[in-house]
Specification:
Strand content of chain A: under 5%
Number of strands of chain A: 3
Shape of chain A: elongated
Number of helices of chain A: 9
Oligomer: homodimer
Distance between the termini of chain A: 49 Å
Mean pLDDT of chain A: 82
Structural class of chain A: mainly alpha
Strand order of the largest sheet of chain A: 1-3-2
Radius of gyration of chain A: 22 Å
Largest interface: A-B, 47 and 43 residues
Amino acid sequence: MKRLYLSDTVAGEIGSYIAERKLSAGDRLPSVSTWMARLQVGRSTLREGLKRLEAEGVIEVINGKGIFVSDQQTFRLFSRLHVTDARRHLLEMLDVRLVLEEKAVVLATQHASEAQFADMAQHLEDYRAAREADDFLRVHEADSAFHLAIYQASHNEVLVALIRSIHSELYVSWQTPQDRNEVFDASFPHHVTLLEAMRRRDIEAASSAFHALMAATRHTVEMM
Amino acid sequence: MKRLYLSDTVAGEIGSYIAERKLSAGDRLPSVSTWMARLQVGRSTLREGLKRLEAEGVIEVINGKGIFVSDQQTFRLFSRLHVTDARRHLLEMLDVRLVLEEKAVVLATQHASEAQFADMAQHLEDYRAAREADDFLRVHEADSAFHLAIYQASHNEVLVALIRSIHSELYVSWQTPQDRNEVFDASFPHHVTLLEAMRRRDIEAASSAFHALMAATRHTVEMM
DNA sequence: CATCTCCGACCTGTCTGATAGCTACATTTA
DNA sequence: TAAATGTAGCTATCAGACAGGTCGGAGATG
């Protein structure tokens, strides 16, 4: 049933090229004319393939410079989701985040290395320092980094890929300018408790600390 | 910093056209030459814009027919995930699926309407009939439809959007041609038990039935 | 010698005209 | 009536051309 277009084949071909050579962010790919000769296709066909890879976030084509491997793909998960009730939407997102991150917490408690725990501790320290300096941007960055570190420590690549993809859409929305202090002050102690529990490899305690953290977050959303 | 290319403007323009007129799946868009005249751009530029929208899953361009609004966006979550160990990858996917779908099961048990339960029952009946006819394609379709129905009955739009987006990548992979019978035969009874428990609004029973189902699936993967 | 300017090689962005192939539908034909 | 054919409209692809961005080196300038 699936129609096969040359331009899609081109996209696959170039994607394979990247995968096979294990190229990473910033690496440069052969030029358009090189690919035209190599794949024996016309210019427009090739560019359509490139455009598709670009839309998928695999590559970046820069005028005058060349074709480069992109650092990460960004998707638009909710771009076509018609959100009528913002508060309800936030609560639904929290539900999804809850189950994904709880899994990450459990896996991280089991599998995280000491270096990864140290990494998390550093993010928490940044968190505290930024809060003290009333630098909310950095507070949020540190908070994000802490949670991302948990996902990474889960050693589940699918989970990491998934959360990286939807992170911006899943986490950003509740950054209301109002009452930031409350949100952060309420959740910070739970962060500390969570990290300590994970470090002790105490799944029960880690899980319950995480639930307490999410309960606090949910509470602030429900108050909105 | 963000460079503005005409082809991206085109994509935005056509996207707006769809949003403004609230077009939905299957609706037909003006032809390429119409757009060329309307936006005053060349054909290749326009087609690059279309290719981007196509990659984002917004539209579908079919040779000889025209340009149509697509029913769902599909993004490629694992396109850049270098999978070295297929078996481990499958197990990781199962972990992610487990937590997402368990949440869906619980929510569906609480919130599903009778019509939605009837829908699930119909899919199960299709499942059984297809299995009897040894029509594995339809077996898989019915199975997919059953699980998707659970997500939809959860009434959590974020969950639905998420699972719709990654469904093809999260579920397709273990369709190994070999031993299909075993997989399906082992899991079918659990499907029935699961539906009955949800229908009774018995969260405990539904949850444990779902776990049994996933345990069976995990078992077959681990045997691979 | 150090610095600046300019030019040319190489790259991508866009346009245009032409051709082939696909699809749906009306028309003709057996 | 049903199959074959013609046709209009559409997308897929190609080839060539030109404009504009980027970068580094040759040469001018001090």
